[in-house]
Amino acid sequence: MFIDPAEIFKVLSVDTRIQIIEYLKANGPTGAKELSEKLGLSTAAISQHLKILKHAGLVRSERQGYWIPYSIDEKALENCREVLNEVCTCGCEGTGKFREKEINQANLAALKKYEIELQKELDRVRNRVSKIQSEN
Which of 55, 83, 122, 126 could form a disulfide with 5 if both were Cys (CB 3.0 to 4.6 A apart)? Predict the structure, then answer.
């Protein structure tokens, strides 16, 4: 199913949906009830956001008895990343690396912000790995 990139970004323009994606990315498959507890919203509100995210192809679910765990669709998020790389103005040209010759104070600030974002992402991955290892 092909979803127009503009529609996907419209779906992601809602902060709660970004929070859901971030939580699922950091914690793996999660039910609507747990998401509602963690994000401080009603289960009904979370369910509506999950329905929209699922329709956009960004999350998937597979019923396991009474529990319906939701997880992110890695391929869909990678497609979003590719679209962003096409319109990115950071100078990385899709490589994730800034053009060294063009770094000035403005780009340096953007680069430092990017470094912080990468560190947060690395921390989330490490937490997820630790959680999985402790479960095993």
Answer: 83
CA 127 and chain centroid, separation: 16
Cβ-Cβ contacts under 8 Å for 124 (sequence gap 6 or more) = 22, 25, 26
Cα distance between residue 56 and residue 79, in whole Å: 12
Cβ–Cβ under 8 Å, residues 5 and 80: yes
Half-sphere exposure of 73 (CA within 13 A, CB side): 17
pTM over 0.90: no
Pair of tokens at residue 64: 């396991």
CB atoms within 10 A of CB 134: 7
Instruction: Determine the residue type at 105.
Output: Q
Beta strands in 10-56 (DSSP E): none
| pLDDT per residue rounded down to tens, the chain (136 residues) | 556 777 878 888 899 999 999 999 889 899 999 999 999 999 999 999 999 999 888 899 888 888 889 998 888 878 777 777 666 666 565 565 555 555 566 667 777 888 888 888 889 889 988 888 888 7
- Cβ burial, residue 70 (10 Å; 0-12/13-18/19+): buried
